[in-house]
Amino acid sequence: MTSATRAPAGAASGEPDREPLTLDDFARLARRRLPPEVWDFIAGGAGRERTLTANEAVFDAVRLRPRALPGVEEPDTSVELLGARWAAPVGIAPVAYHELAHPDGEPATAAAAGALGLPLVVSTFASRSLEEVAHAASAPLWLQLYCFRDHGTTLDLARRARDSGYQALVLTVDTPFTGRRLRDLRNGFTVPAHITPANLAGSAAAGSATPGAHSRLAFDRGLDWSFVARLESVSGLPVLAKGVLTAADAEAAVRAGVEGVVVSNHGGRQLDGVPATLDALPEVVAAVRGRVPVLLDGGVRTGADILAALALGARAVLVGRPALYALAAGGGTGVRRMLALLTAEFADTMVLTGHTTTGTIGPDTLSPPPPGPPPPGAWYMGSSLSGASHLGPPHPDAPHRTLSLAGRPHTDPPPGPGESLPGPADSGPPSSGPPPGPTTVPRTAPHTDRSHG
Q1: pTM of the full structure
Q2: DSSP tag of 357
Q3: How far apart are CA 301 and CA 322, in angstroms?
């Protein structure tokens, strides 16, 4: 993005920027620096944004069990995935057009993640070539793929990824076309002319400046699970399925030969009203039964969120919007700072819950709800039918048990000095979860729209 399309630092408040201490701080800085329509494109979700809101709200429900005198000095935060060692169980999710946030684009993001030993999943709609991003990277790279009507386009991307040293392909399986994103429609958003999908050409790129309309013309709606084997045979790379929220789809993905499953609702940008990713995680983990690793993206904003996802069976998490917020706030340096904060929080949370390695993090790290009905607005984790404190994905033959939230409003990051919050947002109806079992805590309060995903 050229300087002409970016607001100057501190312009919205007239105050100097402060050193960000949380991921919400990066979001606040990004909102001040980006044009409003670009902010909305990055931060917004589909429909009334109920799922967008719920992704973070469910993490706020989690209650951790601390460990007194844990005797842990320096925890080992690393995790192994598909034969590669990550410094921590967190990577950067695929997000289109990093140049919308900063002119240095995806190479800056890749370099920042690599400096910390963390992976990047590059989007099909990257604003820089696969090869240029690979040149800047020093940690694992995966390539996210949409399947175009011209399958040759997608298969060629897979071959290029293999030849450039990418270690895996991530097939997005929840997007026959992109969701109806009201902010973009109201803004008449188009990608600026100087930013293009660097890895696409011909019919696959035509009209891509309007992402929603382009997806309806270019994506293959007839795609089925047989395409997984085709991708693997052409590229020789492991394929993960991204966009799985149910046991049925998890089972179908494993049967199709995927090497991993990513529990994702597209950051709340696809079908509004589907479960939050942490809500869906236990069902997917139970269905997979350890045959392949399960990852999660959507709503992760703290180190405690990472630990909660691991406690419920994820091997690692991916963060998307925070990477672009940090890129907008400070280029590659900002991304490195954001990832360092997140992983340091995770290490602290490991110590305070008594874990020396990621492999010991399990459901007993999370608190069950107290006995009796929940107070209004309270959020708790579901417990087993016996009332035992064991928490997490049930055995496939066990009675159904869910992770749920009772709900409370969640809003944009609080304004900085001199800033004001946006106008009143529409309130949506209570989010609907899976069919309640005997121990499911009901959702008792509606979510509200927000501008920060």
Answers
A1: 0.81
A2: B
A3: 8
